[in-house]
Structure formats: structure tokens, C-alpha cells
Amino acid sequence: MDLSGMNRKQIGALGERVATEYLHRHGFLIIDKNVTRKIGEIDIIARKEKVLHFVEVKSILCNKFPGEKEINDEYDPSANLHEKKIQKVTRTAQWYIAEHDIEDEWQIDGVLVWLRRIDGKALVRYLPQIV
């Protein structure tokens, strides 16, 4: 599947679906997705064992995956996991915890998704505890 015609919103949505599937395959129970409040948004809320994970997903459409020869893509999706973004996710997570009376352990994680333009294949990198 050629992804060349996708816009940023579509790339982001596809990246979130890929991240959700990745987490599910790695033993996470998906609790909620795209939780939005005035203070921010959480892409994925998942549970693994007794820990609640608030996950921020960053996706990019690329020609080659990192590590492949002749990488022409200059952008790294982790560049958007900057301090301000992480603070917004953290504040939204704190709101969610308070609203749902959660006393479990929790953490903020990241998932980076590279979507290869020519065939639609994905490379996923999970970043636990980015705070």
C-alpha cells in the first residue's frame, strides 16, 4: 500500500493504530485512546500488570527506516517528544488519575512509528518512562 497521498492527520491516525497493535501484541491491555481535555491529549492509555501507561505516539512517513542505507529522511519523530509536549501529557495524565480515583502506579511512555511510504510497512520503537 503506497502511503504517499496521506496527509499529516492520516499519518498520525495510522501511526496510533500501529502503536495500539504493537502495545497489544506486547501484553498491554488498551484502556482508552485519544483522551482529550483542555490541558492536553493522551493518545493511548494502557495497562500492563499493575502499571497504567499514558502513551504519546509520534509518527513519520519515510522513504527508508532508520539503519537502512541511503536514509534521505532528516526528521526524527522523537524531536516532537519535547519537554512542553511531555508536560502536557503528564498534566492530562494527572487529571485522568484524579478523575478516575486511580491509585495504581503509572508512567508516561512514548512510541515512535516510522511508516514506509512505498509499501506501508511500519517500524515501531517503544520508549518506556520518558519522564
Instruction: List the strand order in the largest sheet.
Output: 1-2-3-4-5
- How many H/I helices? 2
- CATH class equals Alpha Beta
The helix fraction, in percent, is 25-40%
Residue-averaged pLDDT: 90
What does it look like?
The protein starts with 7 loop residues before the first helix and ends with a strand. By secondary structure, the chain is an alpha+beta fold. Helix content is 27%, strand content 37%. The protein is elongated. A five-stranded mixed β-sheet has the order 1-2-3-4-5. The chain has a single domain (8-127), classed as Trna Endonuclease, Chain: A, domain 1 (3-Layer(aba) Sandwich), CATH 3.40.1350. The mean pLDDT is 90. The longest helix is centred in the first third of the chain and has 18 residues, at 8-25. A hairpin with a 2-residue loop joins strand 1 and strand 2 (40-48). The chain is built from two helices and five strands, in the order αβββαββ. The chain has helices spanning 8-25, 83-99, and strands spanning 29-37, 40-48, 51-62, 105-116, 122-127.
